[in-house]
Design a protein that fits this description.
By secondary structure, the chain is an all-alpha fold. 63% of the residues lie in helices and 0% in strands. It folds into 2 domains: 48 residues, no CATH class; 38 residues. It contains 5 helices and no strands. α2 crosses α3 and α4 packs antiparallel against α5. It starts with 5 loop residues before the first helix and ends with a helix.
Length: 104
């Protein structure tokens, strides 16, 4: 691989936001002395991108599944806060509106 590009990495990750997080996490590991998974003499950030493009570095779990879990926790926390405030009717309305809202 002569040059690593963002497009090379985006074939392996869901979007640019996820790529930034993955690359920065790997950069920090390399900066602290982690073993390089691809053979190169580039700076750590370029090495991190090369590792992502070669599919040697990836998220532990699927990003979409993680987002769905987080969304469910946020929804539950919102409804629970309404119930703790003894506002049962508002909690029911919040749950109905959240369940009817289409996900984008």
């Amino acid at each position: 691989m002569a040059r690593v590009t963002v497009e090379d990495c985006l074939e392996r990750v869901i979007d640019q936001f996820a790529l930034v997080h993955l690359a920065s996490a790997r950069y920090r590991q390399l900066h602290r002395g982690a073993v390089r998974l691809v053979d190169n003499k580039n700076k750590n950030i370029v090495c991190a991108l090369r590792e992502i493009a070669s599919d040697k570095v990836r998220f532990r779990e699927d990003v979409n599944d993680t987002l769905r879990k987080s969304e469910a926790k946020l929804t539950s926390a919102h409804i629970e806060s309404r119930l703790e405030a003894n506002d049962v009717s508002a909690a029911i309305r919040a749950e109905e509106s959240e369940n009817s809202t289409p996900l984008i």
